Each structure stands twice: as structure tokens, then as C-alpha cells.
From TrEMBL:
UniProt EC number: 2.3.1.286
InterPro entries in the cross-refs: DHS-like_NAD/FAD-binding_dom, NAD-dep_sirtuin_deacylases, Sirtuin, Sirtuin_cat_small_dom_sf, Ssirtuin_cat_dom
One Pfam family of this chain: SIR2
A GO MF term: NAD+ binding
Protein name: protein acetyllysine N-acetyltransferase
Superkingdom as given in the UniProt entry: Bacteria
Lineage of the species this protein comes from: Bacteria, Pseudomonadati, Pseudomonadota, Gammaproteobacteria, Vibrionales
Organism per entry: Aliivibrio sifiae
Enzyme class, spelled out: transferase
Length: 239
């Protein structure tokens, strides 16, 4: 609950909705990616083996969009919270907006657009913020692929994420429909006594027990929550 600097731990679980106001498309909103494209053609290992060119072009386009996007007030407020709390961001997002906002502990459950991996050995990954092209190979001479967790593949850093949530003082979920497992069920691992809050425009999945749901845009709600939490923590240190 308290790190070696005496800071209490806040764990933030984010989804595509926190990056929506930075101009990046979500997946299941009206104009979401999975409303326009087929998961089975673009986000599975079979899809990549069937048509690597199409899959690479989809992720190369998302790379450009993510690079051109800027962190928004929600990303920045969460990064600034580190002055007062030990903040761990557990994100389903593959953009690097949390890092670019200044968050220092970011766990990517579903991979990262600015990395590439071997298509035969997932543990071989590379910093790779440029396009991935056919004919670019890893050190085992296999075609490079996006370092993204496709449907049917194991989620990254799940155990580490679970341990952080289990030792949280507060848990905040932002911008996820809670549609995808096992990521969404991490929220159920929060301690009974932890303060638990969800911020989203809507939740398609089940709202986990004892979470307060605050309907609203991330850039409106998250900065207010962070400001209140900072004030509370600073005042509690003064008394
Ligand atoms: N502020 C807050 N919430 C928002 C905003 C906003 N400006 N815009 C959209 N949302 C909410 C939507 O109401 C929705 O609940 O963000 C959520 C986005 O849900 P999804 O599109 O399902 O995204 P996410 O929950 O991150 O999806 C999880 O599914 O396809 C996989 O790997 C992909 O990581 C992704 C995972």
C-alpha cells in the first residue's frame, strides 16, 4: 500500500476512451475501429499469416495516428499525481500517450505500437517506432510483426498487473467498456477497503462490485478527481 518513499499506491486501469480526446479511435463506440474493420481480418495470428501486408498496413496506419496524437488533460493529470502518490498505470492501450504525458510506471497489457516482435518467438521484441514492412526480419530470420497482443494470444504482464491492483490504496478505471477479458476482470482484484472509481461515457461490460461509476469525458472528470486526491493527500500529511 505504501512504497519506499512513503507514497500510497494508486492504480489506474485505462482503455481506448482515455485516448479518444487525443483523436485516437476507440474500438466499440459508434465510430470505433471494430465497427469499421473485422477483428478476424486484422487482429489475430491467423489473419497475419493469411495476409501480412494488410495487417501490417493497419498497424502502420495506427502507428502514424498515435505518433501524431498528443497526451490530453486526463493523461497529464494522472502523470502529475506522481508528485503525491505512487501511481501505476495499467493500460489496454497500445499508444504511448501515458509515457509522453510523464507517467513513469506504465504496464501495457495488450502491447505497444512503437515496438516490433519476432513472429516465431514472442519474447524477442524491439523498439520500433517506424513502419514494419514485409521482408524485415528478427534475429531468428522470421518476419517482424507488431508487438501487439492479438485475440487468442496471452495478455502481457498480467500477474504483475494483478499484484499492483491487489495492493492499491485507490483504483481508478478510465475509458474502458470492460468488454475484454482477462484485462477487465483485473478490477475485481482491488482490496475491499480501496476506494474504487470508474470513469467512462458508458460501460458495456458489468460494473465490478463496489465501484463508483462517474459518467463523463476523461478530460473533464479525471483532472477533477486527481486535484481532489492530491489536496486530500497533502492535507493528510500536514495534520
Ligand atoms: N472519455 C471517457 N470515456 C470514453 C470517452 C471519453 N472521451 N470516449 C469513449 N469512452 C469510453 C466508451 O464509452 C467505452 O466504454 O471508452 C470506452 C472504449 O471502449 P472500447 O472501445 O471497447 O475500448 P477498450 O475498453 O479499451 O477495449 C479493450 O479491446 O479490442 C480490444 O485490444 C483492444 O485494448 C482493446 C480492448
Amino acid at each position: 500500500m505504501v512504497n519506499n518513499l512513503g507514497k500510497r499506491k494508486i492504480v489506474v486501469f485505462t482503455g481506448a476512451g482515455i485516448s479518444a480526446e487525443s483523436g485516437l479511435r476507440t474500438f466499440r463506440d459508434g465510430d470505433g475501429l471494430w465497427e469499421s474493420y473485422s477483428i478476424h481480418e486484422l487482429a489475430t495470428k491467423d489473419a497475419f499469416e493469411r495476409n501480412p501486408k494488410l495487417v501490417l498496413s493497419f498497424y502502420n496506419q495506427r502507428k502514424v495516428a498515435a505518433k501524431n496524437a498528443q497526451p490530453n488533460k486526463a493523461h497529464i493529470a494522472l502523470a502529475e499525481l506522481e508528485d503525491v502518490y505512487d501511481v501505476v498505470i495499467i493500460t489496454q492501450n497500445v499508444d504511448d500517450l501515458h509515457e509522453r504525458a510523464g507517467s513513469s510506471k506504465v504496464i501495457h497489457l495488450h502491447g505497444q505500437l512503437n515496438r516490433a516482435q519476432s513472429s516465431i518467438e514472442p519474447s524477442i521484441t524491439y523498439d520500433w517506432d517506424k513502419r514494419i514492412e514485409i521482408g524485415q526480419y528478427c534475429e531468428l530470420n522470421s518476419q517482424l510483426r507488431p508487438n501487439i497482443v492479438w485475440f487468442g494470444e496471452p495478455v502481457m504482464h498480467l500477474e504483475e498487473a494483478r499484484e499492483h491492483i491487489k495492493s492499491a490504496y485507490k483504483v481508478l478505471g478510465v475509458g474502458s467498456s470492460l468488454s475484454v477479458q482477462p484485462a477487465a476482470s483485473l478490477l475485481n482484484k482491488a482490496p475491499f477497503r480501496a476506494e474504487k472509481t470508474l470513469v467512462s461515457l458508458e460501460i458495456k461490460g458489468k460494473i465490478p462490485f463496489s465501484y463508483k461509476f462517474m459518467r463523463g469525458k476523461a478530460t473533464n472528470v479525471v483532472p477533477v478527481i486527481c486535484k481532489n486526491w492530491r489536496k486530500l493527500e497533502v492535507n493528510s500529511k500536514c495534520t
